[in-house]
Amino acid sequence: MAAAANPFPEDFIWGTATASYQIEGAVREGGRGPSIWDTFSHTPGRVFAGQNGDVTCDHYHRWEEDLDHMARLGLQAYRFSTAWPRIQPGGVGRANQAGLDFYDKLVDGLLARGIRPVATLYHWDLPQALQDQGGWPARDTARRFADYAEIVAAALGDRVETYTTLNEPWCAAFLGHASGAHAPGITNPLAALKAAHHLNLAHGLAVQAVRAAAPGAQASVTLNLHVIRPATDSAEDADAARQVKAVGNEIFLGPMLEGVYPADLLEDLAPVTDFDFVESEDLTSINQPIDWLGVNYYSTSAARRRDGGRAGRTAGPPRVGPGGETAGTESSNGGHGPGNPWVGADCVEFLPPTGPLTDMGWNIDPPGLTELLVGMARRYPGLPLAVTENGSAFGDTLEPDGAVHDPDRIAYLESHVAAVAEAIAQGACVTGYYAWSLMDNFEWGHGYSRRFGLIYVDYANGQARHWKDSARRYQQLIAAQGRI
Ligand code: FCB
Per residue in 238-294, pLDDT tens? Predict the structure, then answer.
């Protein structure tokens, strides 16, 4: 019998992803200015065990070794982020050449190894100086971001063909400004909505800036689209799921891809704001054609209307945050930031996740990834998709011989690669898969207590890198072009 055809196209891209603050360290080198994550992590009580990204994986110094690991893995692409405060230490003005030099040599090193660089311009490390002037709730930050995007695209555009404007603006807006679990740690629903809008605007202006500075480059954005299922088939629970998806997904998809804030979203949010911070040309500026959409996916959740429905609103955060990010729960934000990230949806609650969970407390639901990809492909025909993050945290043990046996992570990887294959078989145009993450790193509010890497980082022993079994499995998968 002939083997089933491999659904992954020949040119499907296998990569890994990281983010600047999570791996670089060297926070005071090369003229880098402070970011909101430096401030936040150095504020007592914000991050698990008072940890911070000052050193983390020390990638800033070990980048060559890390590139060699990528080459051994057989990676075809590497999704990294550029740190805005390395390139514009104060968030404005001329580029800091030393900051650009770091990414210059990183990009050259990738290309020399046959690995395609995929640059994300914002993975949450806003220059502190811009925060001091209002941060994302202030409109001017969007303009500043476009200037920065132009600097990066002008410097790297002859070698980097693909740019992603923002990583997960939902987290930046709502974990940063509503629940307060992420930097800058604000708990103000109106500030969160302004931040969301200015992130949208930043995206649109940055797409234009990238296209002007690097004609021919591809532009994209990465969203953590929440897969939310109604807890029951009641109309109330269907509406609860709709409401969460509106403020979790549509608040970005609408403006970026359709040029509107949907009417139901505006209605849900009317008690908080009338969106008077949206200026007349904004939606046109935001709604720029993009070349592909990045999707980060980790898990799913189920939502229901709280007892009493709209009339019986009760205060307080949902019990469990939907997948893909830390939400405003006790466990996920270290007990700080008591706010609710689900602005306008405070009569919605989430069911506790079921089944085996990862160390993040997130459920493992590969069909959710298929559902998400197929749903987006049907909704936006002609817009290619890429899975720009997917992975799992488990408690790893480094054996005396340097091995790390992580069968749970391997199972997660295989089942999600199979879920992507299924989406392609159902007709979705998916062009790449980027495992989160190349190596263990600083997991935001959780510090170093969660390990997502394919490669184990022995922080206590000179940040030594050790391949986990999952790294070997990914190496095989790449070599077999996804054939499990
Ligand atoms: C995503 C972030 C990424 C990492 C993973 C686990 O929300 O983009 O930096 O923290 O979750």
Answer: 999 999 999 999 999 999 999 999 999 999 999 999 999 999 999 999 999 999 999
- Residue at 391 is within a domain: yes
Ligand 1 pocket test, candidate residues 18, 41, 444, 450, most atoms within 8 A of CB: 444
Selected catalytic residue, list 250, 325, 371, 389: 389
Structure confidence at residue 317 as a pLDDT band (50, 70, 90):
very low
Strand, coil or helix: what is 36? helix
Is 389 an active-site residue? yes
Q: Are 357 and 364 in contact (CB under 8 A)?
A: yes
* Burial (CB count within 10 angstroms: exposed 0-12, middle 13-18, buried 19+), residue 460: exposed
User: Which residue type sits at 148?
Assistant: Y
Q: Domain count of the chain? A: 1
Question: In angstroms, rounded to a whole number, what is the distance separating the alpha carbons of residues 209 and 229?
Answer: 38
Closest Cα partner for 387 from 367, 376, 373? Answer: 373
Establish if 5 belongs to a structural domain. Answer: no
> Cβ distance 377 to 427 under 8 Å?
yes
Cα separation values, 189 from 84, 103, 177, 333, Å = 26, 36, 7, 17
pLDDT for 76-109, tens place per residue?
A: 999 999 999 999 999 999 999 999 999 999 999 9
Distance of CA 115 to the CA centre of its chain: 21
Span 26-53, pLDDT tens digits: 999 999 999 999 999 999 999 999 999 9
Q: Is 443 a catalytic residue?
A: no
- 3 state DSSP class of 395: coil
Residue 295 CA to ligand 1 center (angstroms) comes to: 12
Question: Could you identify the atom of ligand 1 that is nearest to the CA of residue 391?
Answer: 6
Residue 26 lies in a domain: yes
Residue 63 domain flag = yes
**Which neighbouring-strand residues pair with 78?**
16, 117
Residue with tokens 């990183």: 106
How far apart (Å, rounded) are the C-alpha atoms in residues 484 and 479?
11
- Alpha carbons 477 and 46: distance in angstroms, whole number: 38
Query: Exposure of 379 by Cβ count < 10 A (0-12 exposed, 13-18 middle, 19+ buried)?
Result: exposed
Residue 22 CA: distances (Å) to CA of 182, 265, 289, 366, 419: 13, 33, 30, 26, 27
Identify the residues whose C-beta falls under 6 Å from ligand 1: 19, 22, 167-168, 171, 224, 296, 324-325, 389, 436, 443-444, 452
Residue 322: give the domain boundaries: 13-479
| CATH (domain of 332) | 3.20.20.80
